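protien #1 (seq + structre)
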Amino acid sequence: MTKGFSLLELTVALLIAALLLVMVMPISTYRYRAVELQSSARDVAAALRLTRSRAIAANREAEFALDLAKGVYRPAGAATAVPLPRGVGLALFTAEDEVLSGTIGAIRFFPDGSSSGGGVALSRGGERYDVLVDWLTGGVSVHERR
């Protein structure tokens, strides 16, 4: 008698592996989307901080612009707009003076580091991140909401 696996044993082992893969894939896809949303919120926060730094360094106002319809943002001094991942819901909270059109708005930073204040909300599914800008200090913070 030879040692080895029968065709039936190999088929059962492959079936079990396939079932495990089918169960794990949705979990990893969900986790990827959650990490992608968190990363996008951190990127927006970094762009806001960069805009504030540029306002202070240049000793003049600098503007962070967000286009809700296209899902892109542009920090001050950037040559091109930065796209956000598809499926990310956006909302901009800013002063009325900073609404440039129906879907485009800005958060302005001043040479002393202060700002017009406001924030950007990024959401997908049941997760949401708020990137808030303090009007007095210009400080940027990220808050997770569930």
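ok now protien #2
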Amino acid sequence: MITKEKVMEIIGEFVSPEHVREVKVGDDGSVDVTLSKDTPDPDRTVPLITSKLRSIEGVGTVSIRLEREPKEEGAGEITEEVVREKLKEVIDPEIGVDVVNLGLIYDIKVRPDRTVYVKMTMTTPGCPLTMWILRAVEEKVLEIPGVKDAEIELTFDPPWTPDMISPEYKKRLGIY
């Protein structure tokens, strides 16, 4: 069973303790970490910490986020459709198609506390841009006025296939 102390030790290999805002370890082995918004080079350190934590036996889901400035709640209604439209701005740089039309978004839920949950996948488990795409999805969700927080879950069940691409983009890509 992973302990909070072990998680802190691993994080300490990559960032100083002053950048750690919160660490939670669940009974199921889940690890939830919040780092300061001024954490050095988060595009490099977050994937390294995630990878190291996932390599430890008994660790389940690993969630690492950067703290955010609290923002004022917007007057607009947050709906699944609003979130879906915003996520069309996240383009898979290797394929050139947005994550919605590519079929990577499996589920969107807007919770009463104005937190948005997105369940998504990648085209392959070994996608080298996984962390970049996950962060881009989170950032786009957080740009929606009134959204308090975003929870992005990565899954590979069911595995992605080209059949999941929207009909319009199948035509554009020459897939029939």
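Residues 4-66 form a domain with the Alpha-Beta Plaits fold (CATH 3.30.70).
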